[in-house]
Amino acid sequence: MKGLAFAGSNSIESINKQLVKYTLSYFTGHQVNLIDLNDYEMPLFSVDRERATGHPQLAYDFVFNIEIADFLVISLAEHNRSYTTAFKNLYDWISRVDKKFFREKPMLLMSTSPGAYGGGNVMHTAKTFFPQFGANIIETFSLPSFHTHFNPEQGIIEPELKKQHEETVIRFLNQLKP
Q1: Topology of the domain covering 2-175
Q2: Per the count of CB atoms within 10 A, which of 14, 24, 85, 124 is most buried?
């Protein structure tokens, strides 16, 4: 099966991208396209700009990446209790190209942050609103206190969180239909 994975951050040191990469190590036997939001940077969304210039080609390209995938692995970064500006702008543009842009693809939705809530606010927001855009959220995982519980060489190092993550990923993989 083919997957699409990304972190909802444009930081070159994104902890959410690190979590996605670590998670993808469990996806042996699957072809997963890990993309970077920096490759989809578009002008700030506005209805005036949309009316004047239409939709950027990058918005169509992003929707196409979702369309050709069989499943999605996403980890959202949290800025001020919500999506990052980079992700929100992308989200705004692609929702104008196709309101149901997630296309009911099975989704593993994750978040992490340096704080103890692990991006819980953005996770709550996404779980509330993504289904309105065609998301089929199968499993979720939030990693609190990233810098305490994650090591770049070893991945998740706190035993209980590692176990929760593995169980979540395995449940997700078991629900994918070949």
Answers
A1: Rossmann fold (3.40.50)
A2: 14
Q: To 10 degrees, the CA torsion angle through 53, 9, 65, 20?
A: 180
- Taking alpha carbons only, the member of 13, 5, 69 closest to residue 35 is 5
pLDDT of the chain along its 178 residues, tens only?
Answer: 999 999 999 999 999 999 999 999 999 999 999 999 999 999 999 999 999 999 999 999 999 999 999 999 999 999 988 899 999 999 999 999 999 999 999 999 999 999 999 999 999 999 999 999 999 999 999 999 999 999 999 999 999 999 999 999 999 999 997 7
85-110: string of b/e by CB count within 10 Å (b at 16+)?
ebbebbbbbbbebbeebbeebbbbbb
Measured in degrees and rounded to the nearest 5, phi and psi for residue 72 equal -125, 140
Residue with tokens 């939001």: 37
Q: Exposure of 79 by Cβ count < 10 A (0-12 exposed, 13-18 middle, 19+ buried)?
A: middle
pTM recorded for the entire structure: 0.97
112 alpha-carbon distance from chain centroid: 11
